[in-house]
Give the backbone structure.
Amino acid sequence: MDSIALPAGNPARASEAGAVARRSEALAGWRLAGPALALLALLILLPTIGVVALSLTDFELGYDNIHFVGLDNYLELLEDRTFLISLGNTLTYTVIVTPLSVLLGLGAALLIETEVRGRALFRTIYFLPVVSLLVAMATVWQYLLHPTIGPVNALLRLIGIDGPNWLGGSDTVLISLALIGVWQAVGFNMVLFLAGLTAIPRELYAAAEIDRATTAWDRFWLVTWPMLGPTTLFVVTISVINAVKVFETVSTVTQGGPNRASEVLLWTIYQEGFVYLRVGYASAMTVVFLAILMILMVLQYRALDRRVHYT
Amino acid sequence: MTTQAWTLARALRLAFLSAGALIFLAPYVWMLSTAMKPREEIFSSSLTLIPERWAAVENFSKAFTRVPMLQLLMNGVIVCAVILVVQVLVALPCAYALAKLRFPGARLMIAGIMLGLLVPIHATALPIYVALSGAGVLNTYFALAAPFMISVFAIFLFLQFFRAMPDDLINAARLDGMSELAIVLRVIVPNAWPAITAFSIFSVVAHWNDLFWPQIVVTETAMAPPPLGLIFFRAAEAGDDYGALMAATVVVTVPLLAAFLLAQRRFIEGITLTGLKG
């Protein structure tokens, strides 16, 4: 099969055999990649086109009528109070969760990195929420934050504070959900930062010390922070994307309530599309959701491209 | 002077880390404690962790009888296993072909895979649901696994891995007269175990914990994977029998946590791979 195996001095036959080999390689390639290609088309490409197409219709599951309505669904979205509240809540949630989970993840990584003892133990503990069933842990948090029987408020009562109805009050529900989100995300960010930290060459710290950075604080700003730049950007993007996708805790604990105070994008889409079965309208919401994700990812790529490389 | 400053900094550091660890562990401690407590002690809202009267047996027996808990766990195992096996079987040959064979359309396909990485299940859920509903296969294992039969992430990951593999290995196998499929099975797979393991952990954790898709295609308790089962359990219990509820959360949380504690390094590697996915 391989052209090397052919006797030299017969270029015509060699090139013919080469063509045969190329053709059989192409055939093998198609055969091996074929199933994946078919599934890619069926499960990702077609549904993505489908959701855009459906968003231009008034399709409702259970009704046979389907009409092309142009951009009506999108225009309706602009005046849909629930959807606008949902967008706002998702934004608020993201704005709380992202900085907190990134900073705490970075803090934990820095502390663990410099600490020799118990490093593995702390890493394990902080990572536990990442592998825990979020639906289950959300249930536990709901109990912990229960206004009357929950340990958190019981603890607050000990020091004379009347704790709020965390997940039950419309003023506090989003913050409470965000805190659960932070608790869940810190370990993941910490591990990414730990990987980033170990990639920083030790000599840089030695050089910094000779230079002028004598305190840990100076060394952090002179070496660690700039060297961690790409990691940080990466962690921030992932955190934003994961926060925008918040669903489990809302579905388990609050179901968008009280009074739509925890209505978030995926929950609204879920309700509209899979509970009320207004597929066309929910598709328009999905397209908006997908557009937000795409914009976030494009921003990340562009930022990564422009990034000054320090190494 | 320096040693003193060092010990103070270190004491502070350990204090911070320990305080954080306590907060992170608190939910687990309370989950276990509450699963052991009888109703009246839970409602007395005392801060004691050790129950005065142990009610573990009644709480856990409720968790196993009010919903078919074993069935739920079984569903989770079956669905995760089917998804993982199909994902790997589809992705491995494809990634090999894209990495090591030259065929027309390969570049286009790689571009398609990179684009596919940007599309989450939430975006494709509606059309797939409409199709599954039309086919009348809601509430089946097939419906639970169907959208995840392809993992572009797996292809992407294996592709990176295979590109780094030396061509000599494959050429030698070809000279031995192996077919391309045989090469995948006998040369590539044995060399790709690190990538396969990492991906397996990533996939199982993601699908064991997923609520979004099961909540869409499953309405019967008997077909529910653990997260959805827990939601049904909460509904059946009117949500305020916290003892039984915590017992149920312990049961569904323990399998993955135990696996994590046994193979931490691999888990952390596997899960942080999502980082690549973005």
User: Anything to note?
Assistant: The mean pLDDT of chain B is 86. Chain B is about 75% helix and 0% strand.
